[in-house]
Amino acid sequence: MAKVLIVDDEAAIRETLRGVLERQGYAVVEAASARAGIAALDAEAPVDVALVDLRLPDLDGTAVLDASLERGLTTPVIMISGHGSIPAAVDAVRRGAYDFLEKPLDRERLLIVLRNATRQSALERRASEESESGFLTASPLMKAVLSEAQRAAPSYAPILITGETGSGKEVLARWIHRQSPWSTGPFVALNCAALPENLAESELFGHARGAFTGAETTRKGKFLTADGGTLFLDEIGDLPLPVQAKLLRVLEEGVVEPVGSDRPVKVRVRVLAATHRDLKAKAREGSFREDLLFRVSGFPLHVPPLRERPEDIQLLTRRFLAEARVRQAWPNGEPTPAFLRVVARHAWPGNVRELRWAVERAVLLAGPAMPGPEHLPPEVRFGQGEAPSGSLVEARQFAEAQAIRQALEQARGNVAAAARLLTLSRSRLYERLGELAIDPAPYRRRKG
């Protein structure tokens, strides 16, 4: 039975939608505000589809969309908008929403969109589970890393995974979790680089109701959510120093103190950390605690970049091609030799993540037919850093697009964080995303 989350502040609308959906066999969860909707995403996981009003009393409905994307969820978010807010709803779709429906809702269109979104959600979850069932590699370098990881997995020793952005650090962390005694417990991932400094402590350790302005409900935090399982702290080098001190205490004592609470809570969590930064250098600079470095790096593992694993490029290309075509309900087939040749010669500075979304883009552009080299991004076809023509305007746009993509990769699709990296306002970056036809949604997804 598919589960639908309805986020709308009008009780009558929620009641009407519940009646319609339950008669169609859906399980329904309700929330009357954006914050309650975000809490429901965590508490009711997995949610198959979220139906979210754009105008809510506390925050815009896009806050629910952003929360879903930042958590790496496969939940399609459908925005509901009044006539006057259609441009905002269209903008939400550009930012990653599945679709939008205009009020008053048409019952038949609602059910069609929900049926398609539910189907996509199931396909993406299945593809995600299949892709994570094993670490796909033919590289001797990567096989050596897996051999070390296999030895470390059964122990309680902390593991620090290093490697370039997009190289597969989280995929390796999930693989280690599955080999460990905690595999029946939850695997909870947190991207420390995307945490606002004022919310980092609450995200990690939770908070009590009323602990600060806006804390309308009690929040468990990632440690309590991961209790009995594994917590993966991606980009741990970006944690603020004050939070590093509290994290060290939790790792040493196994006790969490939520913000605003004087009641410590005992937890048993296997912590895996990852970074693309040189933590020893950061420790020397004073921006990362040396004692925390020693605590999290008991067993270091290094994931080599994709350019050092050429054996994996065509192997992963076939996997991603098959997954993308499953999501579109198109039959799979063998990629053309020309497509594989172009893919194999590219340096893939964005590593596995760049390869995944280049293949995804190619599938979408090609339609039901198998993609060819012409469907790959220009930087793949023409070479990294080479503009596709001699025009100065096009060369400038190409370079700008490269910089924006790199910032989106580093910020995992968080447009506000990418804007800070580029020293642009968020509104200006949204303008350039539209003008350069760059979709931030793929960068928000979790994948390599």
Overview features:
448 residues; alpha/beta; Rossmann fold; 3 domains; five-stranded parallel sheet; 20 helices; 49% helix
Short structural description:
The protein has 448 residues and is of the alpha/beta class. It has helices at residues 11-23, 34-43, 62-70, 86-94, 107-132, 140-152, 169-179, 200-205, 221-225, 241-253, 279-285, 290-296, 310-327, 337-345, 351-366, 378-382, 392-410, 415-422, 426-435, 441-444; strands at residues 3-7, 27-31, 49-53, 77-81, 99-102, 159-162, 187-191, 230-234, 255-256, 265-266, 270-275, 299-302.
Architecture overview:
The structure is a single chain. Helices cover 49% and strands 12% of the residues. The protein is of the alpha/beta class and 448 residues long. The protein has a 5-stranded parallel β-sheet with strand order 2-1-3-4-5, sandwiched between helices. It has a 5-stranded parallel β-sheet with strand order 7-8-11-6-12. A two-stranded antiparallel sheet has the order 9-10. Helix 5 runs antiparallel to helix 13. The chain is globular. The two termini are 30 Å apart.
What is the helical fraction, as a range of percent? Answer: 40-55%
Q: In order across it, which strands form the biggest sheet?
A: 2-1-3-4-5
Given this structure, which CATH class of the largest domain is correct? Alpha Beta
Overall number of domains? 3
Could you give me the name of the CATH homologous superfamily of the largest domain? Answer: P-loop containing nucleotide triphosphate hydrolases
Biggest sheet statistics: 5 strands, parallel
Q: Mean pLDDT score, rounded?
A: 84
Radius of gyration: 22 Å
CATH topology of the largest domain: Rossmann fold
CATH architecture of the largest domain: 3-Layer(aba) Sandwich
Distance between the first and last residues' Cα = 30 Å
> What is the number of helical segments per DSSP (H or I, 4+ residues)?
20
Provide the low-confidence segments as ranges: none
Shape: globular
- For the secondary structure, the number of strands is 12
SS-based class: alpha/beta
